[in-house]
Specification:
This protein is an alpha/beta fold. Helix content is 32%, strand content 23%. It has six helices and nine strands, in the order βαβαβαβαβαββαββ. It has a seven-stranded mixed β-sheet, with helices on both faces. The longest helix has 24 residues. It is globular and about 50 Å long.
């Protein structure tokens, strides 16, 4: 996997040489907003170069337009849970054309496979609403409630061919309260996600994160 070398370590950052992020999402885009706001405030030394969604009327594309960020709908193809070959090629080409250095998944509801992972090996990150490796997959907050755990949380991790199985960058716990419903627990997890994800993206953009085997090391 790649050792991210942040632009700040070598030369002054301008809009022309700033670290470039591509975001993929299928839903409302709240984690995209958290990252975009961090970039706009100067906390993250990066710019979001492109937002792509597999849903034409997704909230994430609306949030991108509100911020003057290019947003694009690319049809995902014939499968329900992954991109077909033609769609995968279109996603990869769009990200390459935008000169993206990091791909951030923000509620993207399709598993990435094959060519996509090879094209951006070690440069795709995701946030998952549990303390991985516990409760991978869909609706992890419901899984946590059903299992009766007292603490869950969220995890930022690199993406590989497994389901929520890539090297873990950072985690943050969220206590499960008496009387929690799936909705109330999910809401608190999302608030924590909106703090943790931008911090991790910032560290990657600054060149402060590297991977050694399964371990992610921070400077």
């Amino acid at each position: 996997m790649r050792f991210f070398e942040g632009q700040l370590l070598s030369k002054p950052v301008t809009r022309e040489n700033m670290f470039r992020i591509g975001v993929l999402g299928s839903g409302k885009g709240s984690n995209f907003v958290a990252i975009a706001d961090g970039c706009a405030a100067g906390k993250i030394p990066a710019q979001i170069a492109l937002v792509i969604s597999d849903v034409m009327d997704s909230g994430i594309l609306a949030r991108a337009r509100e911020r003057g960020i290019e947003g694009r709908f690319i049809p995902p193809g014939k499968f329900r849970t992954k991109l077909d070959d033609e769609a995968e090629q279109a996603f990869v080409q769009a990200l390459r054309d935008a000169k993206v250095e990091l791909v951030a998944l923000a509620g993207f509801m399709r598993v990435l496979k094959g060519e996509f992972l090879r094209a951006f090996e070690g440069r795709i990150v995701n946030i998952h609403p549990s303390l991985l490796p516990s409760f991978p997959g869909l609706e992890a907050w419901k899984q946590a409630l059903d299992h009766g755990v007292k603490v869950t949380g969220c995890t930022v991790h690199f993406v590989d061919a497994g389901v929520d199985a890539g090297p873990i960058i950072a985690q943050e716990p969220v206590r499960v309260e008496d009387g929690d419903t799936p909705e109330t627990l999910h809401e608190r997890i999302q608030k924590t996600e909106h703090e943790l994800y931008p911090k991790c993206v910032e560290a990657i953009a600054r060149g402060e994160v590297r991977v050694s085997g399964r371990r992610v090391l921070w400077k």
